[in-house]
Amino acid sequence: MVTRMIKKIFDTFRQQKNKTKGNISAFEYNKLENVNRLNSDKNHFLDSMQIDSRFIEYIYPLIKANIKDRESSVLDVGCGTGILVNKLVLENISQYVYGCDFSVEKIELCKEIYNNEDYFVHDIYAPLNDSYDVIICTEVLEHLKNPEDAVHN
Question: Using CA atoms, how far apart are residues 38 and 121, in angstroms rounded to an integer?
Fold first, then answer.
């Protein structure tokens, strides 16, 4: 049952890649070079934070319910603008909250804006150096060429 559901989700992700943003596909739009270029403009990053915060507010109760205690280590993979990581830190949900993203530009801005060094650059296809009790990955898989590989990692 779960395997069938995951396959259906991945099929949906593949269909999403064909949608366009302007003159390029969503997949092309979210390539590292484009993401870094866009986020080298701090105003673009700040605008994205506002959009991200609305989504995070919507899903936050579910995320919060899955973090058992303050000792749980939490990683937001593909943390983007860092909204979720920052919210978890501010609400003191866990004392071990980290965020990673493939974009150096995004990570540097997260560190600067939130004054928090617990953000790091990571390729989602590479194994993590540490283990975490809770791994969150929102708004990421649909942008990947091989989402199955990322999930299995």
Answer: 17
- Kindly state the tokens that stand for 149: 């590989």
Close Cβ partners of 137 (under 8 Å, ≥ 6 residues apart)? 76, 77, 78, 150
Distance CA 130, CA 116 (A): 19
- CA dist., res. 48 & res. 67, Å (int): 26
Strands 119-121 and 96-101: parallel
Question: What are the average pLDDT values for consecutive 10-residue runs of the chain, which has 153 residues?
Answer: 52 50 61 73 88 92 93 95 97 96 93 96 92 92 80 76
**DSSP string across 43-84:** HHHHHHHHHHHHHHHHHHHHHHHT--STT-EEEEET-TT-HH
